[in-house]
Amino acid sequence: MASQSASDIRTLYKAIFIELPTAAAKKGLGVAKENELEQTAWKGYDAGVRLISAATGKLYSSPLFGDLVERSLGSLLRVQRVSNSVSGALFTALWVTVGLPTAAEIQSLRAELGGLRRELRLLTAGPPVLGAEEEVLAELEAPVVRKRKRAAA
Fold this sequence. Notes:
mainly alpha, 0% strand
């Protein structure tokens, strides 16, 4: 694992400080191979991702990190609750001041629009039809389909 990390560090360093500037200069002069700059960038990116993944894995498997998170979790949750309540109070006043609708108002408006759509479909259907909405829509489309068949014949 250590040799892989050392290899990745060398690859990343070489890609960032040597190969990328060289490939960019070649591309600027118009003598670069096709996709040379992109391939060099991806090579450095892949090495960086491998390094970060290895470092993250080591950090999460460390008992010291686990103890630190365990001790600070309660405090972090309390801070989160306080910040949520403060931001809620501040943004409620801000939304009223600016005149923007809240999420609850938008949801109720969407529900009301859905009800109006259903009501409009039923009103345009002609005589009241009992049944599921799909059946009502099928009955509404039936005259159009018959008219098209007659026109095609």
